[in-house]
Amino acid sequence: MSDFKERAEALDTADELAALRELFILDDSVYLDGNSLGALPRHVPARMQDVITREWGALRIRSWDESGWWTAPERIGDRIAPLVGAAPGQIVVGDSTSVNVFKAVVAATRLAGEGRDEILVDATTFPTDGYIAGSAARMTGHRVVPVTPADVRSALGPRTAAVLLNHVDYRTGRLHDLPGLTAAAHEAGALAVWDLCHSAGALPVGLDAHGVDLAVGCTYKYLNGGPGSPAYLYVAERHQTVFDSPLPGWTSHADPFAMTPGYAPADGSVRGRVGTPDILSMLALEASLDVWDGVSVDSVRAKSLALTDFFLECVAAYVPEGRVAPVTPAAHAERGSQVSLRCDDAEAVMRALIERGVVGDLRRPDVLRFGFTPLYVGFADAERAARILAEVLAV
Ligand SMILES: Cc1ncc(COP(=O)(O)O)c(C=O)c1O
C-alpha cells in the first residue's frame, strides 16, 4: 500500500498542473464528481458580487451595452472554442444542452435536405438526447433509428439525414471515435452531430479538424460553470449561412431592435441564439473559464489518462478480487476522464464512500462513477479513493 502512496506523492510532485488546484474552493474530501458538477473557482464569488451589485444594481439597463451583457453568448462561445478545437465565431452559449440538441437535430435534418428520412441516435445515449431527437423526428417527418456507436457504420445509408452521438458515454466513460464516425457519416452524405458534455474540458475534441457539422455540450461539468450554467451550440462555419434554427427567437435576428414582424437571421453563431440570455449564470461561466488561461487541453488529457490509469491500478491492487469490475475501457483511445466500476451493491457502496469523504456518484442499478478533473484532482486523491473503496467493500 505504501508503495502506491509513495508513487502518488512523486506523481503529484511532478504534475505540472498541480498548482491549479489552488484556484478552486475544495475541502478535504476527494471530489470525483466534477463530471457532474465542477468545483467552484475561488475568484467567481467576487466577480458575481460585482455583477450583481454594480452591473445589475447600479448600472441596471445600461449593462446590456456597457457591461457587454448583450454580446455575452457569442463572446463566451469564443472562450470555449479553443477548448474544443473550434476557430472563433462558431459557438454560441445559451439554453440547456437539451434545447441545443433540439436546435442541432432539426437544423441537421434541414441541412441534409429532401429524401433522407432517418436520424441515427446513439442507443446508449444520455436519455435527454434520445427524447429530444424523438420529438424532433416526429416534427420533421423523420424516423429515429437507435444504434450503438459500434454499429453506426453499418447503419448509415442513403436514407440517413443525421447521426447524433455522444463523444464520451456518460455511464461507461467510453470515448467514441469522433474523427472516424464523423468521416463515415459524411461518406454516407449525412451530418454528424456530437454531444460533448463528457469530453469538453477533459480531452481534445478537434471539432474543426475533424469536420464536425454541429455539436452541443454543457458547461457545468469539466468547464466548472456552475449548477445549470448555460450550454453551447457549435455550428461549423460552412453551414452557418444555411443554418435554419427551429427556434428563431428575436435575439438571433439580424436586427433584433428593429422589432420587425418578419424574421431575418443574423450572420454567424448568433443565429443559434433564442431569447434573452440568462446573464447571471452566463457571467459566472465566463469568470470560471479564467482558470483555463495558459492551460493546454493536451496536458489535461495526459494527466487525465495518468490519473485514471493510476486509480485503476490502485483499485486492482487494493480491492478484493471480483468485488468490482471496470466498465470503462482500458485502452486510452477508448477512455474518457471517468472510471466506472460495476458493483452489485453500488448504491450502498456509494453512500458509504460519500460518508467517508470520497464523492463520486451512481448510475443505477450497479455502476459507481468516479470522474477525474485534472485541474483539481491529484494522484493522492486517486490513491485515497481506491483505498477507501477497498475498506468499504471489505465491511
Ligand atoms: C451527455 C449528456 N447530454 C445531455 C445532458 C443534459 O443536459 P441539460 O440538462 O443541460 O439539458 C447531460 C447531463 O448530464 C449529459 O450528460
From TrEMBL:
InterPro entries: Kynureninase, PyrdxlP-dep_Trfase, PyrdxlP-dep_Trfase_major, PyrdxlP-dep_Trfase_small
Residues modified to N6-(pyridoxal phosphate)lysine: 221
EC number(s) recorded for this UniProt protein: 3.7.1.3
Keyword Hydrolase appears in the UniProt entry: yes
Organism from which the protein derives: Streptomyces atroolivaceus
Protein's UniProt name: Kynureninase
Gene3D superfamilies: Aspartate Aminotransferase, domain 1, Type I PLP-dependent aspartate aminotransferase-like (Major domain)
PANTHER family in alphabetical order: KYNURENINASE
Described purpose of this protein according to its UniProt entry: Catalyzes the cleavage of L-kynurenine (L-Kyn) and L-3-hydroxykynurenine (L-3OHKyn) into anthranilic acid (AA) and 3-hydroxyanthranilic acid (3-OHAA), respectively.
The family this protein is said to belong to: Belongs to the kynureninase family.
Required cofactor(s): pyridoxal 5'-phosphate
Pathway per the UniProt entry: Amino-acid degradation; L-kynurenine degradation; L-alanine and anthranilate from L-kynurenine: step 1/1; Cofactor biosynthesis; NAD(+) biosynthesis; quinolinate from L-kynurenine: step 2/3
A GO term, aspect molecular function: kynureninase activity
A Pfam family the protein falls into: KYNU_C
Subunit structure: Homodimer.
Reactions mediated catalytically: 3-hydroxy-L-kynurenine + H2O = 3-hydroxyanthranilate + L-alanine + H(+); L-kynurenine + H2O = anthranilate + L-alanine + H(+)
UniProt: pyridoxal 5'-phosphate binding residues: 97-98, 126-129, 195, 198, 220, 250, 276
Annotated keywords: Hydrolase, Pyridine nucleotide biosynthesis, Pyridoxal phosphate
